[in-house]
Amino acid sequence: MRTLYAHPLSGNSHKVRLLLAFLELPYEEVTVDLSHGEQHSQRFMQLNPLGQVPVLVDGKVVLRDSLAILVYLARKYGGEAWLPGHPAQAGAIVQWLSLAANELHHGPHLARLHFLLGVDLNLAAAQEQTRQVLRLLESHLATRTWLELERPTVADLACFPYVGLAPEGKVSLEPYPAVRAWISRVKALPNYPSMPGLEPSMPGLEPSMPGLEA
């Protein structure tokens, strides 16, 4: 049985949860209590010395970082569907993983942390970065159904959570109809797992949870 060490409110954890669900891979999810610093416990630091979620344990394989885990799961269990081996197609997908690790991290992810956890940062810069990414996605998705290959891939899963959570950083998605339609398509995929903050019926983060996302 594979094990995912995660937190329910972590967008990075949700990226992995999405692919596990879409691949129909059974797993046990272990919640790491970030609000009480469990991510820095000796036990967890043996899994990830960086003290961050998510971590996936799959037999003898132990992987940290959501994007690394997406690549691993897609290549090991997904065949060509989620991350094809063709160099040009793989490169087109990986460029979106880079966007998730950089622009989406410094934009909607950080803006969300400011409002929900009181993290001190340059809010105006994070919100402007969010809008820049949303404009890029809006233009790209205006003529596409998915980010690449006209089918869902790990590119979509890497970008989806923090784009969908942008309103928690006080950046509205209303001006971006193509982005909102893409979000709805992801949610309509078979076996889609929900996450607080992404579903109207599930409230988001409480502002008393320091250290949510590492």
Structural account:
- The radius of gyration is 16 Å and the shape is globular.
- Helix 4 packs parallel to helix 5 and helix 5 crosses helix 6.
- A hairpin with a 2-residue loop joins strand 3 and strand 4.
- Helices cover 47% and strands 8% of the residues.
- The protein is of the alpha+beta class and 214 residues long.
- The chain starts with a strand and ends in a 27-residue tail after the last helix.
- It is built from 8 helices and 4 strands; from the N terminus they run βαβαββαααααα.
- The C terminus is likely disordered.
- It has a 4-stranded mixed sheet, covered by helices on one side.
- The longest helix is centred in the middle third of the chain and has 19 residues.
Strand order of the largest sheet: 2-1-3-4
The portion of residues assigned to helices is 40-55%
Write the H/E string, N to C. EHEHEEHHHHHH
Number of strands: 4
Mean pLDDT: 92
Largest sheet: 4 strands, mixed
Q: What class, by secondary structure content?
A: alpha+beta
Provide a count of the helices: 8
Radius of gyration: 16 Å
Q: Unreliable segments (pLDDT under 50, ≥5 consecutive)?
A: 207-214
Strand content: 5-15%
> What gross morphology would you assign?
globular
> Cα distance, first to last residue?
26 Å
